Amino acid sequence: MMSPGNSSITSTITSLGPDPPFASLADLALSAGLPDLIYSGYQPHAHSWDNFPPLKDILDAVHKMLPGSTFNSLLLNRYKGGNDYVGWHSDDEKLYGSTPEIASVSFGCERDFILKKKSGKSSQERRSDDKPPLKRSRKSSQDDQHSFMLKHGSLLVMRGNTQRDWLHSVPKRAKAETTRINLTFRLVLQE
Ligand SMILES: O=C(O)CCC(=O)C(=O)O
Ligand SMILES: [Fe+2]
Region labeled Disordered — which residues (predicted)? Predict the structure, then answer.
């Protein structure tokens, strides 16, 4: 496991604006409830924050970057190379509540992160013009997909209705030869 220091996290967040994906990308950049989580078909082992001081330091840095946000849990993904990927999904498990906020910090090899609007949520179908619903085009528009290059030390934030309305993935990339570590900080709501 890499143990990156806080120094690799800088502090400019570029907001994408008020409309979904409600994601912001910064050029910078373990818990209760986890036993309930099934992730990519397996149940991750829950560790205590106390056993991973470097990860706790990164959590503290993320809290400083996003004042007002609270995270108490972390999923760590390691992509050993371009063949490792995460397929289309949304992180809409009940334990994160109805509008999960997820802060995603990346280290190592840069990879594409793609957001795709869920079917039935396309920007054309959502538009409140006066055409009857059946006459609206079902074609997806450019607004229905967004791609971000997640660089070493970047922070991507998903919030609002992103998980309800969008899927995301990190596709295979033949040219990605080195390891990437992704940390997603989340808030698991206590019952
Ligand atoms: O690796 C990433 O950037 C995304 C990982 C992800 O979507 C997840 O852990 O739920
Ligand atoms: Fe995800």
Answer: 117-145
